[in-house]
Amino acid sequence: MSLLSGNVRKSVYLRAAAAGAAVAGLVIATVPVVPAQSVPADPSCPVAIPVSEVVAGMPISGLTTTSGTTPEEFGGTVLGVLHDGIAPGLDLIMVRLEGSQITHPDGSLDKGVWAGMSGSPVYTEDGRLLGAVAYGLSFAPSDVAGVTPGAEMEKLLQNPPSIAVRETVRGARQVTIPDRVARRLISAGEMTRQQADGGFRHLPMPFSVSGLSNRHLQKIADRFGIKRPVVVGAGTSGNAQQTDIVAGGNLVASLSYGDITYAGIGTATAVCDNEVLAFGHPLLWSGPSTLSMHGAEAIYIQRDTVFGSFKVANPSAPSGQITQDRLAGLRGLLGKFPFSTDVTSHVESTEGNSRDGETVITVRSEIPFLSAIHLLSNADRVLDQIGSGAARVRWTVEGTRQDGSAWEFSRADRFASRFDITFESIFESYRQISQILRNGFEHVRINDINYRATYDPRFHALEIAKFEIYVDGHWITITSHRPAIKVKAGSEIPVRVTLAPSSGTGASQRVLLSVTLPKSAHGAGVLYVQGGAFGRGPKASSFDELLANLANAPRNDELTAILRPRRGPGGTDTDTHVVSDVVSGSRHVHLKIS
Question: Could you tell me which residues come within 8 angstroms of residue 171 by beta carbon, excluding any fewer than 6 positions away?
Answer without folding.
Answer: none
